[in-house]
Amino acid sequence: MNIEQYKLNEYNQSALKDHQRKFDFIAADIKSIEAILQKLINFQVAIPSWALGTGGTRFARFAGGGEPRSLEEKIEDIGLLHALNKSSGAISLHIPWDIPENAAHIKTLAAQHGLKFDAMNSNTFQDQPGQQHSYKFGSMQHVNKAIRKQAVEHNIEVIKYGVELGSKSLTVWLSDGSCFPGQLNFRKAFQNTLESLQEVYAALPGDWKIFVEYKAFEPNFYSTTVGDWGQSFLYANKLGNKAYTLVDLGHHLPNANIEQIVALLLMEGKLGGFHFNDSKYGDDDLTVGSIKPYQLFLIFNELVEGMDAKGMNHATGLGWMIDASHNVKDPLEDLLQSVEAIMITYAQALLVDRNKLNEAQNNNDVVTAQEILQQAFRTDVRALVAEARLRSGGALNPLAVYRSEKVRDNLIKERGSKTVATGL
Ligand code: LRH
Ligand code: MN
Ligand code: MN
């Protein structure tokens, strides 16, 4: 299913007058409007290949219908999202959920949809059919060298797939840890994991990065071997300058100050990438910005400030990705909402008056500092984001077009109502 450009233009035409009025209103207040629009146009968020179907919980999975049956169909779905919002120009693959059997063909198909390959994700948290050793008691941390070796070799295979596709990074998330006190020797688990990561690191091409993703808990509920940013940072430092920490917003203990973590990792040159989602309780993988939008804004505020301080390009300096799960919504609608939330928050962070904030901080003027941040956060920037989309050839209102064009109904007609996409 694809939506023709002329159709998009028709929808845009009918919404244009209303948009123009809103855009003129906000544009009048912003000095560097063209620079901000260009930054919004450049910013792209990768869509994970595993988020295109309805996820489940450990209790049930309610398939939504029309789910992609192959990697090709996943690429088509992301292509559709990108045609609508022009901000989803990359795909992130999880191996072995999405093996590119014919890499040249997959690469060409993605390019036809304007998509690049973002970070590759390895998987040593599940046992695959035919696999020699089980990961029940961990992978890279395992007490058995043969199991560690199997995990290392899998990661090296993932890098090889990525090279064929033109990806430039590997994200390693390990579920390794323990469920009960005494199960694990923490130091030995750390050393084994480090040694395994070093072997993977040695296989990285010169222009690649490795992202070490941390998570406080789940599926292990007593200890996790890459459990927080401190541990990830230790691994990244010990590995070398191609290794970075990856922050998944749902992987912290409650009330963690993620914006401060981000600021310090950036300062140390060790922030590599992001998995965006939102949560109320744990690793809920809910729609970005649906629960704690102010926290997301404060994170983006640190990202913009920290990247500018280092002269980093916002669009290319870090790996930006959504990591979400959809239990009750149409995944494609949810992803449109998530990307929109990211763009809105990024735009708000670009509006922060940095000189004034700096001055307020130097004067210990707490009230003014807070006012400056909240002024930006309370600005309705939706017309700015829509204008950036319009200029890139996307839809003024992606979700409305998706609904009017009955995309899900068409996908169900095309693919059937019982299809199940690979993923969690
Ligand atoms: C782990 C995680 C990690 C995985 C993905 C499926 O919770 O965030 O990034 O690769 O979920
Ligand atoms: Mn993640
Ligand atoms: Mn997660």
Description:
With 424 residues, the protein is α/β, with parallel strands linked by helices. The protein has a single domain (44-342), classed as TIM Barrel, CATH 3.20.20.150. 47% of the residues lie in helices and 9% in strands. The protein has 15 helices and eleven strands. Strands 4-5-7-9-10-11 form a six-stranded parallel β-sheet. A three-stranded parallel β-sheet has the order 1-2-3, covered by helices on one side. Strands 6-8 form a two-stranded antiparallel sheet. α3 (71-85) links the parallel β1 (46-48) and β2. α11 runs antiparallel to α12. It is globular. The model has no long low-confidence stretch (mean pLDDT 97).
What does the oligomeric state look like here? single chain
Average residue pLDDT: 97
Largest β sheet strand count, sense and barrel closure: 6 strands, parallel
Q: Trace the largest sheet across and list its strands.
A: 4-5-7-9-10-11
Shape: globular
Measured as a percent range, the helix fraction is 40-55%
Low-pLDDT runs: none
Radius of gyration: 22 Å
Q: Under the CATH scheme, which class?
A: Alpha Beta
Q: According to CATH, what is the topology?
A: TIM Barrel
Number of strands: 11
> How much of the sequence is in beta strands?
5-15%
> Which structural class do the helices and strands define?
alpha/beta
State the end-to-end distance: 24 Å
Bound molecules: 6-deoxy-beta-L-fructofuranose, manganese (II) ion
By CATH, the superfamily comes out as Divalent-metal-dependent TIM barrel enzymes
Keywords: Isomerase, Manganese, Metal-binding
GO molecular function: isomerase activity; metal ion binding
Protein name: L-rhamnose isomerase / sugar isomerase
Organism: Parafilimonas terrae
